[in-house]
Specification:
Shape: globular
Strand order of the largest sheet: 6-7-8-3-9
Strand content: 15-25%
Helix content: 25-40%
Radius of gyration: 17 Å
Length: 216
């Protein structure tokens, strides 16, 4: 299936049920995210940005309201459908990165890319170089800085086809120069696939061009 639109309708994390909630562009409203769009979800800590990514990715279901891929309520999707969606339609970089600390940077990337065959080996080497971590390609990621780990995670996240890419605070430990490099790489890959970018932030925004900012 192709995901052309994500609709978030009157959704709210269940933990917020019954509590006063400030005005939001996402919660308790109808939000339509279009394939090809660029979106920054700006949030304060504790307002549910990581939860939102997990809901869209289907790894959590503790919310009120509805989330749709097109006209399909994601709560009705079966495990096999989710597996295919995560392989072909949704890329995701969680805040905790989900890297294997005992594996090298290259091993973490190749572990996923071997499943998808999405990035040519020379493209992976190019990205490592652009992100300034080519010299760290054979280091266990557990011995790398958080900023270096984020850059490894970015390459791994785009090592697949996608209609939407979800990035939860992807540049929280990067300076402006590396932020711009990361943004350009993600935008290049999204443009090539006609895909949407959804990036969350509590302050250090991914520097996307012409992005719509939504406040959580």
């Amino acid at each position: 299936m192709e995901i052309k639109e994500i609709v978030i309708r009157e959704a709210l994390p269940s933990v917020f049920r019954g509590e006063p909630h400030h005005k939001s562009d996402v919660w308790l409203t109808e939000l339509r995210l279009q394939k090809g769009g660029r979106y920054i979800i700006s949030a304060e800590s504790g307002t549910g940005k990581s939860s939102l990514c997990a809901y869209i990715y289907g790894s959590r279901r503790d919310y009120e309201g509805k989330i749709f891929f097109g006209t399909t309520d994601i709560a009705t999707l079966r495990i096999a459908q989710w597996q295919e969606i995560r392989r072909s339609n949704l890329a995701y970089l969680p805040q905790d990165l989900g890297l294997f600390p005992e594996l090298t940077a290259m091993e973490n990337i190749v572990l996923k890319n071997d499943l998808t065959g999405h990035l040519a080996p020379e493209r992976i080497e190019e990205l490592l170089g652009r992100l300034g971590i080519a010299a760290r390609r054979d280091f266990p990621v557990g011995r790398m800085s958080i900023g270096q780990q984020q850059r490894v995670g970015i390459i791994r996240a785009i090592a697949q086809p996608f209609d939407f890419i979800l990035l939860d605070e992807p540049v929280s430990h990067l300076d402006e120069q590396n932020n711009r490099i990361v943004a350009s790489i993600i935008e290049e890959e999204a443009a090539r696939q006609g895909a949407a970018i959804i990036s969350t932030s509590v302050g250090n925004h991914l520097l996307l061009s012409d992005a719509e900012t939504l406040y959580l």
